[in-house]
Specification:
The complex is a heterodimer of chains A (130) and B (370).
Chain A: E1 8-9, E2 14-19, E3 22-27, H1 29-35, E4 38-42, E5 49-50, E6 55-61, E7 65-69, E8 74-79, H2 89-92, E9 101-105, H3 119-129
Chain B: E1 2-4, E2 7-9, H1 16-25, E3 28-31, E4 36-41, H2 45-52, E5 65-71, E6 77-87, E7 90-95, H3 100-111, E8 117-120, E9 126-131, H4 135-139, E10 155-160, E11 163-168, E12 177-182, H5 184-198, E13 204-205, H6 208-217, H7 253-260, E14 267-273, E15 284-287, E16 290-300, E17 307-313, H8 315-331, H9 342-345, E18 347-351, E19 354-361
Parallel strand pairs in B: 3-13
Antiparallel strand pairs in B: 1-2, 3-9, 4-7, 4-8, 5-6, 6-7, 9-12, 10-11, 11-12, 14-17, 14-19, 15-16, 15-18, 16-17, 18-19
């Protein structure tokens, strides 16, 4: 299982890449392994508001469905245009081509949004799972 | 890996979709050693099984097998089984792992005074299945059996890669395939031999997740989903496994006779969903926006590319939904698959709070090419 050190994480197995005032969001390698083959992802529409900790979509796999939680507060600016046609990108490249949506953060004072885990913290969390 | 009735089993080896597709187009290898194996032997074995099961094992010729059920006195299904007649006075009964204890106890109790001995041989057998259109081609060079003569639902003692097995042409995938009952000490060797022999033909190992979507596409019931002690074989649309015309009494006869002559309270139907949100076990089925039944199994179908489900609904709803499906079919649906007011006027599944329109289809969802 890979946990890139430059990303932030949530206990709900999302990853967050922060670049300036924009956060890119996806699900982790651990999550995609647990879910199995992803067949459909519903993501929040561009322009919609999302709030940290609130459900904003779902990830359907062969065996199960999971809610997708927004890790941050803000406005969705972009959704991955490939993911609808090829949800398997979540499995094949969870931290890259399998990204899900981008959020313009409400607070842009340069701080990392509250409540996110570091790679080390997330790795420790998923280790407990196993 | 997952805990399955006390057995640690792989849900998937790599990708369950690839495993599913391999079984449909090439071949897949399954470890089914969790299944319960019971031998019923003795001069009274056939009579004892005729009494214990809904079917008529005494009518089987040695070497042949049949899908059957074991019911409680009230007609409720205790398990679905495959019974193999190995010899005049010897039968192998294969049960689901989760029900093996119940089946073993019921068989033993029902054999009392009938000159038959029931022995639980689950630990004496590993079970490896090779399933898919290329199974016979992969297996043929490895076995002493002439596969062209091994009929569907038949079994033969044979050697595979030099090891003694009971070779059966049975399965739970909707494809041609074979099941090998082998000594546990031979299992790893046989698995490796089959893996190597089939590699060039696209054979890959397949886990429980693929097994579930394969059997669902093939419209085959799963105990705990479509079958339970609260349901009779008639509820599941499997009244054909109840041989009411066999001579002699059998456990459940009175209840099942009554049930056979009564209008059913529910009907098992097949559904295809129009959205990509997947109906899952336990979700409500809606008719005209009102609950009319419940999903028993649902999954995204790798072969059809859409979510499919089996569900129990009221028979009136099944009839109306079939009529609606036929009418839609005749009229030709719009290219986006929608219908006016579909969510409120037709069949739908409540997928976590949202009604997703669905169409009734005949089971099975998938039938292998002839």
């Amino acid at each position: 299982m890979t946990v890139p050190t430059e990303l932030y994480y949530t206990p709900e197995h999302e990853w967050i890449a922060i670049s300036g005032s924009t956060a890119s969001v996806g699900i982790t390698d651990h999550a995609q392994r647990a879910l199995g083959d992803v067949v459909f992802v519903s993501v929040p529409a561009a322009g919609s508001r999302v709030s940290a900790g609130e459900p904003c979509g779902e990830v359907e796999s062969t065996k199960s469905v999971s809610d997708l939680y927004s890790p941050v507060d803000g406005e969705v600016t972009e959704i991955n245009p490939e993911i609808d046609d090829d949800p398997g990108l979540v499995n094949s490249d969870p931290y890259g081509a399998g990204w899900l949506f981008k959020v313009l953060l409400d607070e842009t004072d340069g701080d990392v949004p509250p409540g996110l885990l570091s790679a080390a913290e997330y790795a420790a969390l998923t280790k407990e799972d196993e | 890996m997952t805990d399955f009735a006390g057995w640690l089993m792989p849900l998937r080896y790599a990708s369950e979709t690839s495993e599913h597709n391999a079984v449909r187009t090439a071949a897949g290898l399954f470890d089914l050693s969790h299944m319960g194996e019971f031998f019923v032997s003795g001069a009274g074995a056939a009579t004892a099984l005729d009494y214990a099961l809904t079917g008529e094992p005494s009518a089987l010729r040695p070497g042949r097998a049949r899908y059957t059920m074991i019911c409680a006195e009230d007609g409720g299904i205790l398990d679905d089984l495959i019974v193999y007649r190995l010899a005049e006075d010897e039968f192998l009964v294969v049960a689901n792992a989760a029900n093996a204890t119940v089946v073993g106890a019921a068989l033993s109790e029902r054999a009392v005074g009938r000159d038959a001995v029931v022995s639980d041989r689950t630990d004496d057998y590993a079970l490896i299945a090779i399933q898919g259109p290329r199974s016979a081609g992969i297996l043929a060079p490895l076995t002493t059996a002439n596969l062209a003569e091994v009929k569907y639902y038949a079994s033969y003692p044979a050697q595979v890669a030099g090891r003694q097995v009971l070779l059966a042409r049975t399965g739970y995938t909707g494809e041609d395939g074979f099941e090998l009952f082998a000594r546990p000490s031979d299992a790893e060797f046989l698995w490796a031999q089959l893996s190597v022999a089939g590699a060039d033909d696209g054979l890959i190992p397949a886990g429980l997740a693929a097994r579930d979507t394969l059997r669902l596409e093939a419209g085959m019931p799963l105990y705990g989903n479509e079958l339970s002690a609260d349901l009779t074989p008639f509820d599941a649309g499997l009244g054909r496994v109840v041989k009411l015309d066999k001579s002699g009494d059998f456990v459940g006869r009175a209840a099942l006779t009554e049930r056979a002559n009564r209008a059913p309270e529910r009907q098992l139907i097949g559904l295809i969903c129009k959205s990509r949100r997947v109906p899952r076990h336990g979700y409500d089925v809606l008719w005209e926006g009102e609950p009319c039944g419940s999903v028993t199994s649902g999954a995204p179908s790798p072969t059809l590319g859409v979510p499919i489900a089996m569900a129990y609904v009221r028979p009136q709803v099944a009839a109306a939904a079939a009529e609606l499906a036929a009418r839609d079919h005749a009229a030709g649906e719009r290219s986006d698959g929608s219908r006016d007011g579909a969510a409120s006027t037709g069949l739908a599944v409540d997928v976590r709070g949202r009604a997703e329109p669905a169409t009734l289809v005949e089971l099975p969802f998938y039938r292998r090419p002839a």
